[in-house]
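Our collaborator T.R. sent over the components below with a one-line note: 'Predict the complex.' Nothing else. No constraints on interfaces, no templates requested, no preferences about which chain binds where. So this is a plain run: every listed entity goes in together, and whatever single assembly comes back becomes the starting point for the next discussion.
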Amino acid sequence: AQTVTQSQPEMSVQEAETVTLSCTYDTSENNYYLFWYKQPPSRQMILVIRQEAYKQQNATENRFSVNFQKAAKSFSLKISDSQLGDTAMYFCAFMNRDDKIIFGKGTRLHILP
Amino acid sequence: DAEITQSPRHKITETGRQVTLACHQTWNHNNMFWYRQDLGHGLRLIHYSYGVQDTNKGEVSDGYSVSRSNTEDLPLTLESAASSQTSVYFCASSELQNSPLHFGNGTRLTVT
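Returned assembly:
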C-alpha cells in the first residue's frame, strides 16, 4: 500500500524567507502523480502544485516549486519569499493509477511578521 | 462556474442517530470521494465512486455508507453515529485519469 510521510508537523519562518516542506512516499508503481495542497484557516483545500512522475523537470508555480527525487521517493515543496498569506496547513498527496489520492498528515506552517 | 457544495456546514448530532451529509458537484465529474480530517491523521479516505451505481470502500469505511444514483451527488451516511466519528468531512471530485481533486468546503460533524 502506498504511504505518504510528512516528517515536520509544524514549522515557523519569518516573512520573506524561503522555507522547504518535506515529503516522502512509498510505492511500487512507476507512473503516478504528486500534489501539494494548502489548507488555510478557512478550511478550504487549495491545490498548490502538481508533479507527474514521468517528468524529470520539477514543477514550478510562481513562488512555489518542488524538488522531485523519484529514486529517493521524495517530493519537497519550496516556498520562496514567503508571505503572511502562506500561513496554512500543507498536505502532500500521492495519486495512484486508480485515481485515489492518499494524503500525508500535514505540516502546519506559520509565517511570522 | 462549476462547483462542489457540501451541506450542512456544521452539524451536531447524538450518539446512535443516523446522519447524512450531502455532496453535490456541478463539474460533471465521474470520480467522487469522501475524506475525514482529524488532527494528527491528515485526510483519510472513507468511500469513493467512479461513476453512477459504483461505490468502493476506503481505508476508514466502517460505520459509513454511500450511494451514487446520479453523477452530481454522493451522500455520506453514518448509520449509527459514534463519538469517534466527530470530525471534519470533505467531499471531492475529479475528472477521469490523473486529475487533481476539487474539494467542497467541508462539514464539521460533532457527535455528542
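Summary for T.R.: Chain B touches chain A through 25 residues (CB under 8 Å).
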